[in-house]
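User: quick one, fold this
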Amino acid sequence: MPELPEVETTRRGIAPHVEGREIVEAIVRQSRLRVPVPDDLIERLVGSRIGTLSRRAKYLLLPVEGGSDGSLIWHLGMSGSLRIARLGDLPKKHDHIDLVFDDGAILRYHDPRRFGFVDWLVGSVERDPRLAHLGPEPLSDAFDGERLFRLSRGRRMAVKPFLMDNAVVVGVGNIYASEALFLAGIDPRRAAGRISLERYQRLAAAIREVLAAAITQGGTTLRDFVSGTGEPGYFKQRLNVYGRHGQGCRRCNGELRLVTLGQRASVFCPSCQR
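Assistant:
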């Protein structure tokens, strides 16, 4: 599933091609996504311009200016991708939506599993029920170790699913939670409420480091993900633990173990993560 670095990579890749451009045509080939495509989406979009793109957690927000003012809210689901095509590039199987711009560029949505969606959002983004409950962005000043320490008091759940709670902090999914816990030297099974402030400060710094590095590398491609320009993400080559159970730890050469936490596979090093 695309996580925060993959969505941010997508935003950065498509923004130069769509911001300020007029939509001259909208094509919906498949409307039955996780959330059905609004019936009036084409009517709302044609003749409008796209404003400055933003991202909240794993949601992409595309302001629509002129005609029907509002925003497109886009979620890539498990296998979705947004990429830039040009007039004459024939759609492939699972290319469900095209936005055609006045310079011939096409924003094309591809989603084999159809777990993603695009919807119309009117009014304040912060009031949308999908976004209102979300915690701070992990790369913002609102996120730090003190927040993790404060929210974890009295919590018996393991620290890894605690990190993956979007009300605590957004965008720290399975891959990057595993990697950050490794860098911070914390066992993912440890109860969230039994971790000290000092270790949470170390963990917050590790989360920032891992996510920033992943964004620089264009995200992580495990199967489906490609950027807005069609490139895979290269952070996979830098993974220390995720997907490497049974292999040797890059730090101590001990065997990496696999456990299940919160119904998600979790790989860690028993020697380096205590």
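User: anything notable?
Assistant: Residues 221-228 have pLDDT under 50 and may be disordered.
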